[in-house]
Amino acid sequence: MWFFARDPIRDFPFELSPEPPESSPPGPWVLHRGRKKATGSAVSIFVYDVKPGAEEQTQVAKAAFKRLKTLRHPNILAYIDGLETEKCLHMVTEAVTPLGTYLKARAEAGGLKEQELSWGLHQIVKALSFLVNDCNLIHSNVCMAAVFVDRAGEWKLGGLDYMYSAQGNGGGPPQKGIPELEQYDPPELADGSGRTIKEKWSADMWRLGCLIWEVFNGSLPRAAALRNPGKIPKSLVTHYCELVGANPKVRPNPAHFLQNCRAPGGFMNNRFVETNLFLEEIQIKEPAEKQKFFQELSKSLDSFPEDFCRHKVLPQLLTAFEFGSAGAVVLTPLFKVGKFLSAEEYQQKIIPVVVKMFSSTDRAMRIRLLQQMEQFIQYLDEPTVNTQIFPHVVHGFLDTNPAIREQTVKSMLLLAPKLNEANLNVELMKHFARLQAKDDQGPIRCNTTVCLGKIGSYLSASTRHRVLTSAFSRATKDPFAPSRVAGVLGFAATHNLYSLNDCAHKILPVLCSLTVDPEKSVRDQAFKAIRSFLSKLESVSEDPSQLTEVEKDVHAASSPGTGGAAASWAGWAVTGVSSLTSKLIRAHPTTMSAETSVPQRPVPEGNPAPAPAPVPDTPATSSHWETQEEDKDTAEDSSAADRWDDEDWGSLEQEAESVLAQQDDWSARGQGSGAGQVSHPDHKSPESDWSSWEAEGSWDQGWQEPSSLEPAPEGTRLASEYNWGGAEPSDKGDPFAALSVRPSAQPRPDADSWGEDNWEGLEAESRQMKAELARKKREERRKEIEAKRAEKKATKGPMKLGARKLD
Predict the structure, then answer these.
(1) Where is the composition biased (Low complexity) (predicted)?
(2) Which CA distances in Å does 599 have to 610, 613, 636, 671, 696?
(3) pLDDT digits (tens, 9 = 90+) for 323-368
(4) Contacts of 35 (CB under 8 A, 6+ apart)
């Protein structure tokens, strides 16, 4: 019964878009946009409505439906589905746009590049070659109306309405009956002179010439206009003239036409066409060829169309990584193409690949990922970073390759804002402590300090209080000069995170010791930092009500906004982090590893041997101070009233240049310096308050102070011999005794010179006095123990083995 009948259009799995149809090319078909009902993917739907009295056009439409359904070629419009009823015909194809509409839209946006046009024409000629040479079919409708463009910018040949067999078994060419299409017919058919066509491709090659003319010059007004090439490129004019020659015998075969245009200097001999041809055959290429191709692809992507990169290059890159052996070379072009994607597309296509790459053991891939992390870090969410990426990244801290360790440290600048409490404040700090204390590469120790200063604002308040002062204090004792500079600037970048007690009792004493550093760059930064910290203390001293405002950030929760000074620090930190390590490691690989090879002084019997640590190559002042108990902080956070954000802290890379020039001299002097001093067990260093980490990765294992057993230089007076104006001479060593030099005894040094002899005398005297005091204490302790033992023996007497107690 009629009410059981089903509407085939309603059950069709595709539906037409409510938008009006696009400007359809001449012919029986009307082009509509559409989508698949199940997935919503875009398609194009060609619709023909059967009209009474138009049986000839209906037969043409049905023939085109059949041809498109059976022909499969990359350069021919791809058939997806179809519907044939008594009232209409529907042909569903890939989503395409008519070439005329596409060229007009691109002209408004600046026009197509010549390389894009060359590839488009290459595709149409290749489709004609397939039809003529492989299928023995004559297209008979090659024109602007029969060419369509997909979303990747690929040209597709359609308009199969008037196709016929070249062997003549299906009859001659059908009549078009449409003037807009008949103007592209060759003269031997139009004038009816009876001239025979000697080659089966002659008519289609004439029409190809008309298409080339329209692509460069616009709509063809009449056939006589073909005599003037117009804007056709010179490299194509010669071959174009062969196509539109009056003699059909001289028109080339499509395959020969392609070969001629691909010759050196030809119109289709360019990088864009070569890239497309390689991508079409990439599945059968050798692995070595793929590697070379992907390495060179990144340089060319900037000149390629955006649509081509998104829809053609990207799928091939993802396939090459997923199923091929391309490896790390895919990363650079992959991230370049990723710039053209929306955030949603990036999450769907790129991020799953990136997460999988981080689990790879290939060092080349790991270092490429770390180097280019800034290109995709914004698309990573925190759970993904903490559970799938960070556990793999931290292995780089323990890698034997310095380049891997360097890139891992640098990547923490980007990962830190997304790390959770445990990974940031526990795991990461443990690795940073190990690197700063034990890494044999000075630039990596320097970068660790730089990175810690940059991420200080993300740390919790308790971690900041426990870590920052100790870490930066250790950096100021590093034998590598840029590391000492980084320590000073680390204090500067995180100045708002310290209480005034820390500034006065911990930070300023450390900075003051750097005012006599052998490197002028270190001294300059130290003086600048001291002045700023002093001005901060002085301002609170003048107005105690400012204390709360100055210390408002000290106990604040971790927040990106608390690191205001870190932004000004970026002027040198980013530069230093990006190139300093690689430059110094490659320039002087042996020098930096030699700075830790200074022999250690023999350890007295009975004392534990200290862990090996780098020793400064030049004598450093041995200044230890007793830390005072801090009052309970009542402040809330730190101050914006200081001037750190306006300070220009210089360029670490400039300092590195001077380091490179003096590196060999440092090593030579370092070998002759004193060995590491054995610290007294009763003495507590400023770093010893952070003892929660295990021994191998603790910030407490700072750079050990050098000790010198050399006698004081001649003429240097001990502090006990100097008369300070009192009745009795002082019996304690005074570190300023060596600085008390009478003007008549020695000439005054220049303003920029530093009396190294005086500093060495001061250090030698101070060390000798401390060594003497330590020896006396040990001697007194030994006598005490012996006295106690003698007293025990006298009271009880010696016991003999085997003696029996008698009644």
Answers:
(1) 556-567
(2) 13, 10, 48, 8, 21
(3) 766 677 888 898 889 888 888 888 888 988 888 888 888 888 888 8
(4) 14, 15, 17, 41, 42, 43
DSSP string for residues in 74-134? TTBPPEEEEEE-SSEEEEEEE-EEEHHHHHHHHHHTT---HHHHHHHHHHHHHHHHIIIII
Cα dist from 514 to 308, 438, 535, 621, whole Å: 58, 22, 18, 8
Lookup result for tokens 């530093």:
754
* Burial bucket for residue 10 (CB in 10 Å: 0-12, 13-18, 19+): exposed
- Identify whether the C-beta of residue 132 lies closer than 8 Å to the C-beta of residue 200: yes
Confidence at residue 579, expressed as pLDDT on a 0 to 100 scale: 46
* Pair 524, 630: CB distance under 8 Å: no
Q: How far apart are CA 86 and CA 84, in angstroms?
A: 7
What is each CA distance from 275 to 116, 296, 743, in whole angstroms?
12, 10, 79
Predicted local confidence at residue 223, as pLDDT: 83
Could you tell me which of 271, 224, 219 has the C-alpha nearest to residue 244?
Answer: 224
Confidence band (pLDDT; 50, 70, 90) for 765? Answer: low
C-alpha span between 581 and 665 (Å, rounded): 19
Q: Roughly how many angstroms between the first and final C-alpha of the chain, as a whole number?
A: 130
Tens of pLDDT, residue by residue over 2-28, are: 444 567 778 889 988 887 776 666 778
Query: How many residues are there in the chain?
Result: 807
Q: List C-alpha distances in Å: 392 to 331, 337, 361.
A: 18, 25, 9
The string over 755-780, giving b where at least 16 C-beta atoms fall within 10 Å of a residue's C-beta and e elsewhere, is beebbbbbbbbbbbbbeeeeeeeeee
Reference 209, options 164, 266, 143; nearest CA is 143
